[in-house]
Amino acid sequence: MKKLKSSQRLIACIVAIVMLALPLLAQQRHVAPKKPAAASEPAPTFDSLLAADSYKVYCEIRGVGGLIRSSAVNDLLDPVMKLGGPPKEFKTLVKWLNAHADVLAGSRMMVAGWSSRPKLPNVVVAIEFSSPEEAKKFYPELRDFLPKLLPTPTPTPTPSPAQTPAPAAKPGTLGAASPSGTQVTRTELIVPPTIGPQNVGAVADKPPEPAGPPYQMKQAGSLVFISDTAFTFRDLKPRGSKPLEEDQNFLTARNRFSSESVFLYVDLKAIEKEEKERRQKYEEEEQKRIELEAANPPKAEESPDTTEPAMTESMEEVQTVPSEPSSEEPVVIEETADSRVSGVATLSGGPQPGTDEVAPIMYSLYGALFGGEVKWPEAIGAGLVFEGDAYVVRTLIINNSENKGNAIPFVPQFVTGPTMVPESPNIFPADIDLFVSVSLDYPQVYEGMLKAMANAQELERKYRSKPTADGPLPETPFAAYEKKLGIKIKDDLLPLLGNELALVLPRKAKKAAKESSTPRAEDSKAAGANQPNPNQGPNPVIAISIKDREAVGKLIPKLIEGFGLKGASLLAQTEKRDGTEIVSYAGIFSYAFVGDFLVLSPDPAETRHVVDAYLNHQTLSSDSHFRNYTRWQPRQVLGQVYVAPGLVEEFTSDGRTSGVALNDKVSEFLSGVNPVIDPLTYSLSNDGLGPFHELHVPKNLLMVLVAGMSAGASEALPASNEAAAKSMMRTVATAEAMFKVTDNSYGTVDQLVSAGLLNKEMIDKYGYRIEVAASKDKFEATAIPLEYGRTGKLSYFMDESQVLRGGDHGGGAATLSDPPL
């Protein structure tokens, strides 16, 4: 029995335990089993941060610390710091960056701007470090520094909506115009009587909430971020989006500029798409507006025809009254094909000068060359690096298949020809200031100009005030010109031309002095009154490569006569130089065949100089400066530019400060700059990726230009500070009026700032010291330049009359006796 009872007790315990455990087991059956903890998403990296459609502008700076310490940056900062008088924030930033250059030595910085999608910051800055530990160490230092550079804005008190409306201003009170002409509205100054002296400055029921800083910061992995608004990494690269690192255009540009210190990428395709969508939206809204106006036409006014016919009749009478001609013979206005194209009527009442006939043609040709539909590339990549003694800027144009030959996006008719080794330096003289050579595809340029002219005529007919009936378009200037010449430009002229077109600007001052010192009798006799005038600028000389000299020689007289020089053959004067023939037309135009080029110039003396230099082997290709400073260029190019030191020095002449008057500081700085200005050079090539522009700017030239701009900014600083000081004085007067209403007395600067009526930072920002002496019924405010002559010259005074007075006191205070301003 005992065993049976023990067994019953054991079974009862087991049943009780099972009954208690059933609810728990049931809960476990309904609860999903725990999944293994998912691996946290990897920290964003510098290269995988952005999606291809996040931003349109991307900039990457490599080796930030090394760049900060480099002479390329410090040599340009030197004139800014010494001559420009930069703001305090700029000096603080430069000092802080120099102190942290070692930390940033191997860092990269990315700046992305112009967001393409909503909910993205306008600008995102990411700084990459070698390890997350380095990023964590740098983050608090940057966090503590940014408020000095970008301080949190002070909240502005706002009146409570529950306040009682203020009474209107009365004449003679603060609401009236002050003697200085400043209008102060009383409704903005009066505070309800319920606010007494114990609530000075309380212009709102509750104080405004403190504003946050104008930036956001975060650190993730080895990256530190700064942005203007908060963001998540999922915003920068949403799921399923194409990473920027996989965009073909971006890869092409980034790989091409992998070694440059600064890399810039602009997604023009995205910009054009956004502009197209904006334009389409505007057109849709405009169409809706037109349809709405058509569905709800405005009510017609009573008797709309009572006055209009009379007006029309009178206008017709006025138009039919002939004006008296100045001569007895009637003047007939004849509309020709040229006048229809250009919109200019030609008078046929007598012989017209040739320039009047050719002017409409030249204007139309100019418009066709620089007009037409602009075909923007898909993207532009650029790199900046310092090499030797020059700053090098390289740009890659990434075109689509339709405009591969378009090297300059905003000049659609500039279509480059095949790559070439420029031959024009072998004929031009060495003493030039500017040399430009380019390879052109003339047939495509011609077709593009024709298309641009046709589009312009179609638009003119479509949008003119009195639309014309559909019919054949008027002749283009090319067609009119071909009719005069009796030739076809495309078939008879263009096949005779090579691809190279070159232009030089002679070194006029030096050449004129040389010619005046050693004149040749035969030159003086041939040139007559056509000798160059030293007071005039040099005339350009153009060289066009040709394939058939004899055929071009036969066409030139026809071409000249077609441009308005009637009887040009009778005006031609010919002279020979060792077998080279120079032809001049009345001293206004000349040409010669030199080598495989046709040389043209409006100044016969310049043409003779080119011929003499070629015969004496004193050409540009033999000049050491030209050879040395163009050696970096590829052998085969599409274009080439060389700016000689003479022209560069002319633009920075005398003070070498771009026209800024020299002072002691500028003179002292320029004394340490290399006085020899190196040439500026440029090339246009195509290495298979697209048109490639490369510009070499000499370091000493850029330093001189920066010094000039800094000195100019320094000269302009006092004027801008004086304008700001005058504005601040009026702000002080307004604040005093508000303070007087609430406290029944005027306040000092500290009291006005405490009441939220003045911003202390704005007062101290513009190089003036503003002081206020206040009592119950009077106040006197003065503004004195902190550094007389540098931050300002004029001193200012204002009292309760709100009349601004001032004068030059040599850095002293202005008084009530100064004249009103």
Your description of this structure?
This protein is α+β, with helices and mostly antiparallel strands. The chain is built from 25 helices and 24 strands. The chain has an 18-stranded antiparallel sheet. Helix 3 (71-84) packs across helix 23 (699-743). The longest helix has 45 residues, at 699-743. The radius of gyration is 39 Å and the shape is globular. The model is unreliable at 22-32, 159-205, 303-358, 510-535 and 653-661 (pLDDT under 50).
Topology, pairings included?
Blueprint: H1 2-30, E1 55-62, H2 64-69, H3 71-84, H4 88-99, E2 108-115, E3 123-128, H5 132-149, E4 216-220, E5 223-227, H6 233-236, H7 248-256, E6 262-266, H8 268-295, H9 308-320, E7 333-334, H10 337-342, E8 346-347, H11 354-370, E9 379-387, E10 390-398, E11 432-439, H12 442-463, H13 477-485, H14 489-493, E12 497-506, H15 508-517, H16 521-527, E13 541-546, H17 549-562, H18 568-571, E14 572-577, E15 580-585, E16 589-594, E17 597-601, H19 604-615, H20 624-629, E18 639-643, H21 645-651, H22 664-671, E19 680-686, E20 691-698, H23 699-743, H24 749-754, H25 760-763, E21 768-774, E22 779-785, E23 794-799, E24 805-808
Antiparallel strand pairs: 1-2, 1-6, 2-3, 3-5, 4-5, 6-9, 7-8, 9-10, 10-20, 11-12, 11-18, 12-13, 13-17, 14-15, 15-16, 16-17, 18-19, 19-20, 21-22, 22-23, 23-24
Helix pairs in contact: 3-23, 11-12
